[in-house]
Design goal:
Blueprint: H1 6-15, E1 21-24, E2 27-30, E3 43-46, H2 51-59, H3 62-120, E4 123-124, E5 131-132, H4 142-146
Antiparallel strand pairs: 1-2, 2-3, 4-5
The structure holds zinc ion (ZN) (2 copies).
One zinc ion (ZN) binds next to helix 4.
């Protein structure tokens, strides 16, 4: 598609006889309300060619061309706004994804510390009184308690009433 020189087309439309135009016999005439002091004549052009061509020329009058160019400008503006919004949204989304990844990395590191602590603070079950390998105190030690570990309490659960 050939390049449309919108500015040149608009400049030409603005100085041409104002639309709307109609075909009248072998003439194209303007139906615009032209002030009586205006130098512009309602007559636009003589046409010798096919009626369809004359009809097209009349249809593509300055009024219509300017309206089309206005539409084009408005749509281009809408497109720019939509693109800017899309870019801002995708930027916000990647920001959120980066923050989530950071949080996941931090959580993984924290979980690693917890697992390392859990491995250290295991009960020694070989002795008469279970004690923590790491601390030497009765199990669960303070660290095991802090990590939410409690000794297995067999039979402590209430038997369901029969
Ligand atoms: Zn022991
Ligand atoms: Zn311990």
């Amino acid at each position: 598609m050939s390049e449309i020189n919108a500015a040149e087309l608009r400049a030409k439309a603005e100085v041409a006889t104002p639309g709307p135009w109609i075909v009248q016999g072998h003439e194209i005439v303007s139906r615009a309300d032209v002030p009586s002091t205006s130098l512009q004549w309602p007559w636009v052009a003589d046409v010798d060619g096919p009626f369809e061509d004359a009809a097209f020329i009349a249809a593509a009058n300055p009024l219509v061309v300017i309206a089309l160019l206005d539409d084009r400008d408005r749509l281009a503006g809408d497109l720019r706004t939509a693109r800017r919004q899309r870019d801002e949204e995708s930027e916000a989304k990647s920001g959120n994804i980066r923050a989530l990844n950071r949080a996941l990395t931090e959580r993984d590191a924290a979980l690693g510390h917890v697992e390392a602590a859990l491995e250290l603070h295991q009960p020694c079950l070989g002795c008469a009184v279970a004690h923590c390998f790491e601390c030497g105190t009765d199990y669960p030690c303070r660290t095991a308690k802090a990590l939410g570990l409690t000794p297995e309490q067999k039979g402590a659960r209430d038997e369901p009433a029969s």
